[in-house]
Write a structure and sequence with these properties.
The protein is an alpha/beta fold and 292 residues long. The protein has eleven helices and twelve strands.
């Protein structure tokens, strides 16, 4: 492999400094976060610019804010990939030495369906596991991207910098307050408030299909907790739209929607630079647990 001047002269600490300056918009703020004097930050950026042969940062005219140039943005994009690869290397070495548990994250809807069976499978193999508290939205994927989780279970779309394996299709259903409502037509439920989770691409598709069948709720309330969504519906406060794995409801409270939509894909995701063999095995165990 030929080694160019950038490889010979680049310093990872300089990449980290550039990243912090670009994120904070200020040399002084980056210095404070990194524990450097401001002149040291300036020297590191200058050294990186010399190695790259391009100016990487510039001051926005009329402000004191510093932004990345086009070359700087290219460097930062590759720096994110380099740091992700290094975090994955740390993960693989730690796993090899049994230094820490496998860190698992999952969205609220996925956790309820996937984790109980998967954790039993992993415990049977004497594998130490840590389940992480996951922020809302795409937080499970973000934990993997930041190197804080080794693998996550989530609906799509999947970030392009992550590897993904679809482990199941989770069908949607309406949860209603009593058996009489469950036997009613979709259009007759239109006056109800719809309680559901934050939208995904699959759910957006289904909601559009439901509208074509006359299901047009008077109000839509999107909540993060699937148990709360289902409980509100069974209590008669409205109708819930949920993936099957997210909430258990008696059959008389359920309107299946399988004929209208194939269901929400559920993925196992991990860093592209991580050991695919280990992560694919865990994803396979999750798929087996769901099928059991």
């Amino acid at each position: 492999m030929s080694v160019g001047p950038l490889i010979r002269n680049i310093d990872l600490s300089h990449l980290l400094t550039l990243k912090r300056v670009a994120e904070t918009g200020s040399f002084s703020a980056a210095a404070a976060e990194l524990g450097y004097v401001q002149s040291a930050v300036s020297s590191q950026v200058a050294a990186l610019e010399a190695a790259a042969g391009h100016r990487l940062l510039e001051r926005t005219r009329g402000t004191r804010r510093t932004t990345a140039t086009e070359a700087g943005r290219i460097i930062l994009q590759h720096a994110d990939e380099i740091f992700a690869a290094l975090r994955a290397l740390e993960t693989d070495l730690a796993a090899l030495g049994g230094m820490r548990p496998l860190r698992i994250a999952a969205t609220a809807a996925a956790a309820r369906g996937v984790l109980p069976g998967l954790l039993r499978q992993l415990a049977a193999r004497s594998l130490s596991v840590e389940v992480l508290d996951t922020p809302r939205g795409a937080g499970a994927q973000g934990l993997v991207a930041d190197g804080l989780a080794d693998i996550a279970f989530t609906s799509g779309p999947v970030h392009e910098w992550l590897e993904a394996l679809e482990i199941t299709r989770d069908p949607f259903r309406l949860v209603v307050g009593n058996g009489k409502q469950a036997r009613a037509s979709l259009s007759s439920l239109a006056a109800e408030t719809l309680y559901t989770l934050p939208a995904t691409s699959a759910q957006d598709e289904l909601e559009e299909v439901l509208r074509t069948h006359g299901f047009r709720p008077r109000r839509v309330s999107r909540l993060a907790d699937p148990s709360l969504v289902g409980t509100l519906a069974t209590a008669g406060a409205g109708v819930a739209l949920l993936p099957r794995l997210a909430f258990d409801a008696p059959p008389e409270n359920v309107v299946p929607l399988d004929t209208l939509h194939p269901g929400q894909p559920l993925y196992a995701v991990w860093a592209r630079s991580a050991s695919a063999d280990v992560h694919a095995r865990v994803a396979g165990l999750a798929r087996d647990a769901l099928a059991a």
